[in-house]
Design goal:
With 181 residues, the chain is of the alpha+beta class. It is built from 8 helices and 4 strands; from the N terminus they run ααααααβαβββα. The chain has 2 domains: 97 residues, N-terminal domain of the delta subunit of the F1F0-ATP synthase (Peroxidase, domain 1); 73 residues. The radius of gyration is 21 Å and the shape is elongated.
Length: 181
């Protein structure tokens, strides 16, 4: 799971401000996603993070990987992160940027954790159910955690809905230990 750092948050806020000023929020979002996917490849990361290579050589590799595939402002941000040795923060910058964009558009973020991968039909039904519960559009992210045994949990903001077998077993254990019904 990607952890947002204060530095990633600041870069994302600056990018979001530029994108809002230009009206290019979606292009920025798509560019950050693509750049993170390309540079997340282990082979690319090994070359770009190698301090034994001169920075000019690493920048050439970076330009070949993302040049022409993302907009110029996104490429400039990626080059800046590379120059400052923070290229590993790019996925967190992208995640934080999307959070800012969702907030602006009134979209709530929900995280579903299931014991097995959900089908597209199950995901669509779950999205519809959570939208009905919250009254807002939902950006639904999925994680698979086999330790749930079965069922799923849904987190929307600070609200947690636990419909997992593990959660039910823990509640049953607590009831048995405390002697309550």
């Amino acid at each position: 799971m990607i952890r947002t750092t204060p530095a990633a948050r600041r870069y994302a806020e600056a990018a979001f401000e530029l994108a809002t000023r230009d009206g290019s929020q979606d292009a920025w979002r798509d560019g950050l996603r693509l750049a993170a996917a390309i540079l997340g490849d282990p082979a690319a990361a090994a070359v770009l993070d190698d301090p034994a290579r001169p920075f000019a050589q690493r920048r050439e590799v970076l330009d070949r990987l993302i040049g022409g595939r993302v907009t110029s402002p996104v490429a400039n941000l990626v080059r800046l992160l590379a120059a400052r040795g923070r290229l590993d923060a790019l996925p967190a910058v992208g995640m934080e940027y999307e959070r800012l964009l969702n907030r602006q558009r009134g979209i709530l973020e929900a995280m579903v954790t299931s014991a097995v991968p959900l089908s597209t039909e199950e995901t669509a039904a779950l999205r519809a159910r959570v939208q009905a519960m919250t009254g807002s559009a939902i950006d639904l992210q999925s994680i698979v955690d086999p330790s749930l045994i079965g069922g799923l949990t849904v987190r929307v903001g600070d609200r947690l809905i636990d419909a997992s077998v593990r959660g039910r077993l823990e509640r049953l254990r607590t009831q048995l230990v405390t002697g309550t019904r």
